Fold each of these.
Amino acid sequence: MQDFFQIDTSDPMPIYAQLERAIRFAILTGRLQVGEQLPTVRQLAVELRINANTVAKVYLELERAGILETRRGIGTFVRAEQFEVARRGFDNKAERERELRALADHYLAEAARLGYAPEEAINFLKVQRSKEKKTYGRKN
């Protein structure tokens, strides 16, 4: 499950927000299927090396939003009838731009950590994109 949810403690986005987004994204992309059981709060907290209260807070918020459901004594599951609710937060243009800005900041910070100037990192992306276009024949 740790592979599904990447948490970066150096990221300025709060850990609970990172985890909530990661769970929504895993559902959206099909990595978490409708009806699939999530790890227990304690299991996920240990795997991600974060506070169990943080995981519990995220599970509770996603349950309130109708994305997850907790069955006493059994566990927490992805709700079948609420798949579209998981998309909320990805539909809002301002929210998507905020996420993209955070991703760009993170990319540039990691590139700097590796010793690359921002211009070098951006040029690298451009080269990769042009290779992708040639390889896959994409026009975008």
Note: The beta strands are 68-71, 75-78.
Amino acid sequence: MKKFICLFIAASLIVLPGAALATDKTVADQNTTEKGKRRKSSEHHLKFEDCDKENKGALTFEEAQTCFPRMSREKFDAIDTNKDGAITKAEIKAHRAAKKKHKKDKPLAD
């Protein structure tokens, strides 16, 4: 009986590290895309071109909301500075720069 227990423990020590490595690889595989790049945690890292279904260089509210489900109408309207009902890459870039500048200029609380 003691030999069986010793063999069982020895076999477990040999098999378990391999199983842990296989599990780690599976998790790593889940965190990569088809192209082998790490997947970003935020949906904001989708490509603009992937969202622009009509290839017109601008996103309608429906296209933007499809790619960015948390996009509210208020946020869309804030990005759409020329109020044409669509947002362009330039408008998104300008909105991000304005947000970044606002954070930088904001005084620290005492």
Note: Confidence is low (pLDDT under 50) at residues 23-28, 39-44.
Amino acid sequence: MALCPCGSGAAYSQCCRPFITGRALAPTAEALMRSRYSAYVRRDESYLLRTWHPATKPAALDVDGGHWLGLEILATTKGQAADASGTVTFAAHYVGDAGDSGTMREHSRFERLGDAWLYVDGDVADEGIA
């Protein structure tokens, strides 16, 4: 049983995989955040773009650099099944291609369109360590 990269402690097949493969929709903003992190780990540009709000979605992403080491959810506000919006604050640890390590912190905003949670944008701070 492979654990999910999102750090939930659950098996990937029972955690983020159903969202990434399109078999289910993330029920909360946090679940979407965790699945997007897993998609970055797995370098799944398609899922990341599919779950990005159309008003802020880029034309393309570069997901090929570095290696993600772990995710910590620091705070959430709203973002439950009955909410229209929510936020998730997280820290994602990484090692870059040049061997540099660091932590990316983001306060992310999410909105629901119909039944689907979508990533809108976020305030990012990168605390890289050489």
Note: The first helix runs from residue 17 to 20.
